Structures are given as C-alpha cells and as structure tokens.
Amino acid sequence: MTAAPRPALTERDYRGAATPTNRKASAVAATNTVVRPGSTKRSTSRWAPTARKLTPYAFLSPTVIVMLVLMLIPVIMVIGYSFMDNVITNKNPVFVGIDNYVEVLNDPVFRTATGNTLFFTLVSVAAHLLLGLGFAMLLNSPLVGNVTKALFRVVYILPWLFTVAIIAVLWRLMLNPNGVINYILISLGLTDKGIEWLSSPETALLAVTFINIWAGYSFYMVTLLAGLQGVPADLYEAARVDGASAFQRFWNVTLPQLKPIIISMSVLDIIWTSQQFALIWMTTGGGPVNVTEMLSTYTYKLAFSRYEFSVASASAVLILLLTMVLAFFYVRHQKARD
C-alpha cells in the first residue's frame, strides 16, 4: 500500500514559512522597537505602582473626611472650650485654665451623678450578662423543641427591636400609678395603692435600671447563643465520659469557651450604658431631686438649661477620658484575643 502524495508547496507557503532567516528578522525587529520617552505606555508603567498604593486611600477618604468633620473637629473644639470662660454667651472669652474642671469636680450634683451612673451601669451590665446567658442556654438546650425555641426567640428579641422612645413611653404608661403594674400588684394584695415608680426618690433609680435591663439583655442573649452553638460537642462528650456533672461541664467547658465573648460584650456594654441619655431623659429627666441624675443628663443640663457651656465642656471632657480608659482596655483585650 503506497502513501498518498504530498501536496506541492506554493510560493505563498515558502514566503510565510518560519525559516531561520525569518525568525532572525522578527527578533531584530522586536529588539529595535523603542518606546518614545513621552509615550503613554512608559508613563502608565511608571505611575502604576503609586496608583495601586493610593487606591485604598481614595476609597477611605470620604469616611475619613466625615469622621474629621463630625468627630475630631468637634472634640477638639469642646476641649478648647473647657479652658475658657462661657464661650457662647460671652463675645470675648478668656482663658481660665482648669477652673471649669475644678468647678465640676467640686459640684455635689456631679458626685451624685457619678454615683448614680456607677450603680446604673454595674447593675445593668451584671443583669444583662446573667439574663442573656440564661436565656441563651435555654434556647440552646436540646430539651426544648424547635417550635418552642422559635417562639421564645421572637419573644426574647422584642425588647432589642424597640427604639428608646418606644421603650420609654411604654414603661411610663406601665409604671404609672394607674398603670398595669400597679393594677396587678393591687389585685394580688401586695399594695394598697398605686406606687409612683418613676416619681418617688426611693424607687426611681431602681425603676430606670430595671427598664434598661429589660431593654438590653437581648443583645447578650443573641451573641452568647451564637457562641454556645460554636462550642464543639466533643468537649462536652469528653467531660461527660470523665464523669463531670452538668455544673462542672458548664464551669469548665462552657464558660472558658465563652470568656472572650463575655469580656468583649461587657466592656462595650459598660461604655454604652454609662453614656445612656435618651432613656433617662424621657422617663425621669434626672429627677426627682437628682435621684436618677446621670453624667450624661448632668452635662446636658449644664449646657442647655443653665447655659454654662464651658463648664459643660469640662464635664464632657471628663466623661470622654473615662470612656477612653474603657476603650483602651477593650482594644487591648481584642489585640490579646487576636
């Protein structure tokens, strides 16, 4: 069997063939191709690394500008006002040094507000943690059905969904002398008449603290529930095999796994609760007789009730310093955790 004859090469095939001479000519032509100094290609390659480095800063610049205008500049202005006499009502304010800080620290109302803020903050944070952890463990328990868990999640998360204004109005109506709370207490025979929960010096601070606890435990519950669902089941199995009781499994397995989350949330909650203003202002306004006066309401009254803006600025700077201390510990903990 003979092979098929090969087709004859034409003159065009000879011209396009990759002969050594053609390859050499192509290489020389590529080598002799020189980019002009003013060309776009050379300019683009020169500035490309710099453009890549500046691109992230270009995306961040709007946020940085907003933060400078709305946060950094006002803070600097308030710090400057705290060293002057009344800067708003006085056309020519003068430098008075630390006189405003001395006045604030010697004010008995400021000391009362500091004590109220400490009580309000510490009790609220502790109750948030205990209630949030308890409800989170309940919702994570295998003894509760899925339908029941879904129902409880909706009920428990409701306080976190309400705005501060709604919470304040709701509890003012419920704690009214003719409200639902007093009606239930009178029906059960626990009291003979309606109690002025938000107007009595004996109960006002406890009442606003209770309202804040009710409004804030859901944040802990949701976060701790996510943490509980992330704990490996193998740890509980190993502890159960070793004969650990339910309390020992909770103390030696659950709490160590949730410790980073608990510390982070507690520090954040201390910062948020110590600066609580809207709830106090819309329920008691700091009264009666400064019983519920907080650092936030005290500073607000200095500025917009007594029009002592420089003294209010000094009080605000003191609150800022306290908050910065808490923020320092929070950032330090986060770095150690990472």
Automatic annotation (TrEMBL):
Compartments where located: Cell membrane
Which InterPro entries does the record associate with it?
ABC_transporter_permease, MetI-like, MetI-like_sf
Report keywords, A-Z: Cell membrane, Membrane, Transmembrane, Transmembrane helix, Transport
The reply to whether Disulfide bond figures as a keyword in the UniProt entry is no
Protein topology in the membrane = Multi-pass membrane protein
The protein's name: Sugar ABC transporter permease
Family in the record:
Belongs to the binding-protein-dependent transport system permease family.
Show where the ABC transmembrane type-1 domain sits: 114-330
User: Where is it mainly found?
Assistant: membrane
Q: Where is this region: Disordered?
A: 1-24
Report the transmembrane regions from the record: 57-83, 118-139, 151-174, 205-228, 309-331
Q: What domain of life does the native source organism fall in?
A: Bacteria
Note the PROSITE patterns from the entry. Answer: ABC_TM1
